[in-house]
Every structure is written in structure tokens, then in C-alpha cells.
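Quick board copy: two proteins, each given as sequence then C-alpha cells.
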Amino acid sequence: MKPKIAAQSGTFESSDVIFLIEPLPDNSGRKLDISSTVMQQYGSSFNRIVTEMLDEYQMTDIHLIAKDKGALEPTIKARLETAINRSMERQEGTL
């Protein structure tokens, strides 16, 4: 799937992560820009979680920007899932 619109989720507060998603032209693949205050300790886990979720949702032609401030795995997954759903214009039940 390809994102339809630009979307974001999360905050840049301590123990949280912000994800920004932008659609790319067809056949562009994935462009990931990830920064984290805990990259040395948990960077490989963070990258694995993001890649697995993008694979799960079959996301292609996507520019994903992640700015992490030490979020735990459930927070990372929830924020990324929300950003993906918003980018696909599938977010239901929100104000």
C-alpha cells in the first residue's frame, strides 16, 4: 500500500516518539529517517520494529521520519500504527 496523504502521530516529549509519513512517487521504495536519543542502546530494536510494521502493512513509496525520545515498544507500535492509518485515511472514531 502507498500512503495517500501526509500524516503524523505522537509527540516530541520524553518517553514518546513522533512519526511523520509522506507519500513518495510510485516505485520510490522506502526512505527512513530515524533519530533517537537512545539510538546506541536500542537503535537496532527500534529499526526492527519499524521495518516489521511497515512490512506488515505492506507500505511502499513512503518517506517515514521518526524522532524518538526513549519510547517503549508498545508506544512505538501504537504511534506508528496511528500514523499509517491516518496516512491511508482510515482513522475512524477520532475527533
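And the next:
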Amino acid sequence: MVYICQSSGMPLGISDDIGINADGSGSKDYCTYCYHKSEFLESALTVEEMILKSSEILWQQIGDITQEAKKIRQNIPNSKRWK
């Protein structure tokens, strides 16, 4: 099963993408770009800033992100962190 980061909307498909909880275990909710040792790395980001950051990361990883960008824009504002 692929989880989706509840902050950035990024897929958590491989272990390198998974954020770390305070006890050192992997987070099922947050990615490594957002979360480390149970803290958000950029806690001052707004929802719009997170959408831009996520889109930039995806662009670097896969290039054409047209479909993924639509999903990010829809999913981030409704995710666990931003509700």
C-alpha cells in the first residue's frame, strides 16, 4: 500500500520518503521532506507555500507533473496537517 503524506501530498512509496517519529520509527502520515523526529521541518509554511514546494520537488523527480499537480492542489488543503 502506498501512503500519501498528510502535509505535502507526496507518495510514501519507498522507505527513503518516509518521515521519522520521535522514537525513530517511520511515520505513516508524513514524508521526509516535511517531518523529522515528530516535528514539521518548515512549520511556518502556509498551504499555498506547501503546494508550491511539493510541485517543485515532484518536478525535480519526474519532470512533467501536470496530473500530479492537480492532485496536489486538491489533496493538500484537505490533508491531516492542514484541516
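Board note added afterward: Residues 8 and 54 are 6 Å apart (CA to CA).
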